[in-house]
Design a protein that fits this description.
- The chain is mainly beta.
- It has 5 domains: about 140 residues, Immunoglobulins (Immunoglobulin-like); about 80 residues, Immunoglobulin-like (Sandwich); about 110 residues, Immunoglobulin-like; about 90 residues, Immunoglobulins (Immunoglobulin-like), CATH 2.60.40; about 90 residues, Immunoglobulin-like (Sandwich).
- The protein is built from 1 helix and 48 strands.
- It starts with 19 loop residues before the first strand and ends with a helix.
- The N terminus is likely disordered.
Length: about 600
């Protein structure tokens, strides 16, 4: 077959095409990468068509052996910026229409005139770079509702490539010594460098041009060169179509009135309102489509004025969804959902098949709330140098996710919140506080606060840290004035530990306890100081984690020397002064 304007789809053999099903029997790989969901259906399309600007492309669509009434077919163009536009509409009674607001107006038409519902393929003449995007062949069917197939149109443009060295002066500061550019290509080119230099390649700069092509610039930076060579290389300018697979849902310009958001709790009945007041055009059919948070699309309710009402049994809302009025009207096809579940959260699309403008829709976000169960607890830890979790805070089974904050006067860190999605679509949030615990941290205050959309005010949980450590021991009571004959001298063993110390043991460094000493739990009482007290006393305290000890050496003074250490120093200073005065007087007398 000779090549014509009708069969120049790059990637397909002329006269042959192998359509893939996007739902009914075969799964088309490209649909695995789209964020928007796809309705389970039997519409045959080419997953991808590749072309160059100025050519004519054919976008094929078939619905063979539908086995059900086909009401209308619309072609919708979804650009890379996610804007949806009807470009071609066919109704068996009203005929063909090409909306003049379409960016393809005057360049798009059905392949056959008149077209058929079973094979409404279209062709686009003089393709432009801005025509790149997704083309949705969407049927209004009864009783199953809307069904669609999606073709990605990929536009290629061969870039203009050039490179140049940059005249530089030798120096110690890195400068650009060479530039390489691939301009006006589609998709973006890849630039690599080959050189025997010790420099660096800059990050490629990609610039999107008004005609949807991309210019890529790269540079090589080095310290001023004395000798060397460079040779930029281009790689792979025509093969990368992945960037076109990541689109987000848009919305058709429409006059459908809906509530942007409806909020409910599990178990309630919610009404999702939809109106198309004063349409001024034939309304063919209306379908409600449920788009879950995982982007799966499902028809849940369909109304056709001739065929009636249908609620697809494959819908997750089967048996719980119905039109508010019986029978409904095309002008007001509001629905209600009974016994709402957490898994019902998502987008609900009220979509009309209209003529001649094509499909129009309104979207309501159903938000399900669940009040979480909140709790917090401190964690018993042992003192150490490594940070460990000392407190936990959790908000479980809430929707949406709760927010957790901490209040404390500690030198620790808050962990990143961990969000876990539960099977019932609720979310559990966990947060923890970490610290390298020290004995001084035991008993300190810390609190976490949980905030949630369902709570009138935040809930705060005050806690005290629990840090366990071996006993810390200190002996008090020795005043450095124990003299022979002194009575009722005593030492006290003060100990702090967690758990509370269980035993206190007094001993001496020599191993023998003087006879004049009595041990009374943590106190050591000396009835009368004598030379046997001239020793080192040791207090050892134990708990379940270990022991701590302190010791003090007692110096026994002469019984007539009862001054304290401070007083003794003063007396020594005064004696020295008197001695010096005496010496000066003697020297004076001798000279005189």
């Amino acid at each position: 077959m000779p090549e014509t304007a009708e069969n120049r789809n790059i990637g397909l053999l002329a006269g042959h095409w192998s359509p893939e099903f996007s739902g009914c029997f075969l799964f088309s790989v490209p649909f695995l990468f789209f964020f928007p969901g796809s309705l389970t259906q039997c519409v045959r399309v080419d997953p991808e068509v590749v072309s160059y600007p100025g050519q004519t492309v054919t976008l094929r669509c078939q619905f063979p052996n539908p086995g059900r009434p086909l009401t209308q077919v619309s072609w919708v163009f979804e650009r890379t910026d996610a804007e949806l536009t009807n470009i071609a509409v066919f109704h068996p009674n009203f005929g063909v229409n090409y909306p003049t607001t379409s960016p393809l107006s005057g360049r798009v038409s059905f392949v056959t005139d008149p077209p058929s519902l079973e094979n409404p393929s279209i062709k686009i003449r003089e393709v432009k770079m801005t025509d790149e995007g997704r083309y949705i062949c969407e049927y209004a069917t009864y009783p199953s509702g809307n069904e669609q197939g999606v073709t990605s149109l990929v536009l290629l443009a061969k870039p203009k490539n050039f490179a140049t060295s940059v005249t530089v002066t030798t120096g110690k500061t890195p400068v650009i010594v060479a530039r390489c550019e691939s301009s006006n290509g589609r998709p973006a080119a890849s630039i690599s460098w080959s050189m025997a230099l010790n420099g660096n390649v800059t990050m490629p700069i990609e610039t999107k041009n008004p005609d949807n092509t991309i210019t890529v610039q790269s540079a090589y930076i080095n310290i001023g060169l004395l000798a060397g060579h460079w040779s930029p290389e281009f790689s792979g300018c025509f093969l990368f179509s992945v960037p076109f697979l990541f689109f987000f849902p848009g919305s058709l310009t429409q006059c459908v009135r809906v509530d942007p958001e409806v909020v409910s709790y599990p178990g309630q009945t919610v009404t999702l309102r939809c109106q198309f007041p004063n349409p001024g055009r034939p309304l063919t059919q209306v379908s409600w489509v449920f788009e879950r948070t995982d982007a799966e699309l499902t028809n849940i309710a369909v109304f056709h004025p001739n065929f009636g009402v249908n609620y697809p049994t494959t819908s997750p809302l089967s048996g719980r969804v119905s039109f508010v009025t019986d029978p409904p009207s095309l002008e007001n096809p509001s629905i209600k959902i009974r016994e709402v579940k957490m898994t019902d959260e998502g987008r609900y699309i009220c979509e009309y098949a209209t003529y001649p403008s094509g499909n129009e829709q309104g979207v309501t976000s159903l938000v399900l709330l669940a009040k979480p169960k909140n709790f917090a607890t401190s964690v018993t830890v042992t003192t150490g140098k490594t940070p460990v979790i000392v407190a936990r805070c959790e908000s479980s089974n809430g929707r949406p996710a709760a927010s957790i904050s901490w209040s404390m006067a500690l030198n620790g860190n808050v962990t990143m919140p961990i969000e876990t999605k539960n099977p019932d679509n609720t979310i559990t949030v966990q947060s923890a506080y970490m610290l390298a615990p020290q004995p001084s941290d035991n008993g300190k205050d810390i609190s976490c606060t949980v905030s949630h959309r369902t709570m009138t005010q935040p809930e705060t949980f005050p806690m005290k840290l629990v840090v366990e450590y071996p006993p810390q021991v200190n002996i008090v009571g020795y005043d450095n004035n124990w003299y022979r004959g002194r009575t009722n001298a005593n030492l006290t063993c003060q100990a702090d530990g967690n758990p509370v110390p269980t035993t206190v043991t007094w001993k001496t460094l020599s191993g023998l306890m003087p006879e004049t000493v009595q041990v009374q739990e943590n106190r050591l009482v000396v009835q009368k100081v004598d030379d046997t007290i001239y020793t080192t006393f040791i207090c050892e305290v134990r708990n379940s984690l270990g022991y701590g000890r302190d010791q003090i050496s007692v110096f026994v003074r002469d019984s007539v020397h009862s001054c304290g250490s401070t007083e003794a120093v003063i007396r020594l200073v005064l004696s020295a002064l008197v001695g010096m005065a005496t010496v000066l007087l003697l020297v004076y007398d001798i000279r005189s």
